[in-house]
Amino acid sequence: MPSLPRRIASEFNDRLRSPETAALVAGIEGKLTKRRRDQKMESGAFRGMEVVVYRGFVAAGDVAKVRVRVLEVPELPGDSRIPYWDTAQSNLRRHAALPIVGVEVELSIGSHRTKEVTDSHGFANFSLPVPKLRAGWHDAHAVTTPIEDGESAAGTGQVVKPAARAPFLVISDIDDTILLTGLTEGIAMVARTVLREAAQRKAIPGMAPLYRGLVRGLPTRSGRPRPEPTFFYVSTGSWSFYPLLHEFTDLRGFPQGPMFLTDWGPTERYLRRSGAEHKRTAIRRLFEAYPGMSFVLVGDSGQRDPLTYEEMAREFPGRVVLILIRQVGGDDEDRNIAVRERAAALREEGIPLHLVPDAVAATDLACAAGLCDSETVTEVREESGAD
User: Fold this and answer.
1) Strand 63-72 to strand 49-53: parallel, antiparallel, or no bridges (unpaired)?
2) Are 121 and 113 in contact, with CB atoms under 8 Å apart?
3) Beta bridge partners of 115
4) Contact (Cβ atoms closer than 8 angstroms) between residue 180 and residue 201
5) Which of 217, 229, 286, 320 is at a distance of 20 to 30 A from 266, taking alpha carbons?
6) Is 348 exposed, middle or buried (0-12, 13-18, 19+ CB in 10 A)?
7) What is the largest CA-CA distance in the chain?
8) 115-173, pLDDT tens digit by residue?
């Protein structure tokens, strides 16, 4: 039986990590944030509201899932002419932007409308029935009510309804899977994240043409275009990075897709976040949102992607077409040796997990599985500089 001090410490830890404590802390944080906003409005320093409508998706049953955030308009950096300084200021100010707590937001998609109130971090999460919405992308508009006799604010984003007959859906990690981040490199990773704009960030060679090839797929016998798979991006990065990631994927030619990022700080449910749990929850949510569809999972060996994807393949047997894990680091690193051995064992069980050194090897596997054409192989090899 544990000693009394250990029992007390365990009970204290459980209470500290409980949803009740998280809700209490989030409530206090929300009140402090609202007080800060009121003080800025009274002093005339408040710059107005900005509404961000993140790319959302329409789940089976025609329910649109959309996240909106309301923030104070960020202060723009000046022209310091000091290399990287303005970019660093812009990125850091995005993280420090004042969330607008407790404001009512109306979301509309076509003729369908609903309202929600922002939480302690300025987020409003919507589940809006959109019956008979056709497959593809649709505009989503959000508008706030005025605060303190001020002006309202509005924003526009998009939601996607995957084609019901698409051959599969794709769930992709971001950092070190499509975007060179170097999460295992410490200071170098921080420098890339803070000091560089989207146009200066590097894509993993060959991944964009591979993803475009998965969208294109194989030609059909009739010659008609097949329904395209929808892409979803999952990352442990903060929602504050969304504008940068949105711009990066567009600039580098990756398929558009909803992103599942994280809130940094306490919420009504969690006092402290787990990156691995965030990914599991997001991926599970997508499998449950599209119960009749198969998935391709793409990640890297730098974090817990192999284990997370294995867990999802076991939880939803028969629904994972292919798992591609990009190798981060050398062949002889203990982490990669373990993943390679585990992947071989999993394939014996029927779980198609592969550790690949680069996009060329990933494309060869995707083509062998009938997911893309020979043109994709050529495009990936050209971008990767392979012979």
Assistant:
1) antiparallel
2) no
3) 106
4) yes
5) 286
6) exposed
7) 73
8) 999 998 999 999 999 999 999 999 999 999 998 767 899 999 999 999 999 999 999 99
Question: 55-105: per-residue pLDDT in tens?
Answer: 999 999 999 999 999 999 887 666 666 656 666 666 666 777 899 999 999
List the Cα angle 59/65/70 in 5-degree steps: 170
Three-class DSSP category at 225:
coil
| Contact predicate 294/317, CB 8 Å | no
Query: How far from the centroid of its chain's Cα atoms is residue 71's Cα?
Result: 19
C-alpha span between 363 and 376 (Å, rounded): 7
Residue burial 209-219, b: 16+ Cβ < 10 Å; e: rest: bbbbbbbbbee
Name 103's Cβ contacts closer than 8 Å, sequence gap at least 6. Answer: 49, 70, 117, 118, 144, 145, 147
In the 8-state DSSP scheme, what is residue 51?
Answer: E
* CA–CA distance, 237 with 235 (Å, rounded to integer): 5
Question: Is 322 strand, coil or helix?
Answer: strand
Q: CB under 8 Å to 138, separation ≥6 — which residues?
A: 109, 110, 130, 158, 159, 160, 161
Query: Are 161 and 60 in contact, with CB atoms under 8 Å apart?
Result: no
Q: Which two tokens stand for residue 378?
A: 């050529």
Structure tokens at 136: 């593809």
| pTM tops 0.85 | yes
Rounded CA-CA distance 57/256 in Å is 12
Angle between helix 305-315 and helix 334-349 axes, rounded to 10 deg: 10
Q: Quickly count: other Cβ atoms within 10 Å of residue 97's Cβ.
A: 18
- What domains appear along the chain, each with residue ranges and CATH number? 14-160 (2.60.40.10), 169-384 (3.40.50.1000)
Residue 54 neighbours by CB distance under 10 Å: 21
